[in-house]
Amino acid sequence: DIVYGGDPTEVYDERSEPVPVNTYGRLKADFDKYLAGRTEPHCIVLRPSNIVGPVHPYQSTGTKFLQWLDGQLRKDEPTKVFDDEHRNYVWVEDLVDMVMRLIDSFPTALPEHKLFICGGPDALTRVDVAWLLAEAKGYPLIYQSPDGAQVARLVPTPRAAVDLGYPSPLCIRMCSAQAEEFLGRRFRSLAEALKEDPSRI
């Protein structure tokens, strides 16, 4: 999704022109265009939003956003979380299903489209994600400090309060209707995916 400019009035789909705001986005957009123009080998571009999912089944190292957030929600300390950056978080297993569907269709039933937007149905902030995770796992969002004060675990924070060191689009809302039609079902919402088995997070 980093290939888009972040217009808060727009819902991006396969017809939307990339308007990258940083070098990483420009490189991705250029490579997507290169792949889409190939006839041999036949290339299909999946353009996902932020990917989240359960703990990696084969390794425990590395910290992904959802696992980092889970760790923070277990602590008795406040955590700053962006409240104005919107993304259509996509569950990793839905993305895997999409890839497997493409593999199964090769080479006799290739899709007519060469680009698929892949994002969950809801454009969420990181605060939204934290609330959903806390609800799914039963975490209280308030803790008691040693002096007896009631303290919020989440501190909603505008992204502008943090220097990322590079420009990044703030609001990217995406429509995945074309991918869902090919897959034969809709992508799960983050709330649905988290509630399926919270213990895997």
What would you note in describing this structure?
This protein has 201 residues and is an alpha/beta fold. Helices cover 31% and strands 15% of the residues. The chain has six helices and ten strands. It has helices at 23-36, 65-73, 92-105, 126-137, 177-183, 190-196; strands at residues 11-12, 45-48, 51-52, 79-82, 90-91, 115-118, 142-144, 150-152, 154-157, 173-174. The chain has a two-stranded parallel ribbon. The protein has a two-stranded parallel sheet with strand order 2-6. Strands 3-5 form a two-stranded parallel sheet. Helix 2 (65-73) packs across helix 4 and helix 4 (126-137) runs parallel beside helix 6 (190-196).
In terms of topology, how is this protein built?
Elements: E1 11-12, H1 23-36, E2 45-48, E3 51-52, H2 65-73, E4 79-82, E5 90-91, H3 92-105, E6 115-118, H4 126-137, E7 142-144, E8 150-152, E9 154-157, E10 173-174, H5 177-183, H6 190-196
Parallel strand pairs: 1-10, 2-6, 3-5, 4-9
Antiparallel strand pairs: 7-8
Helix pairs in contact: 2-4, 4-6
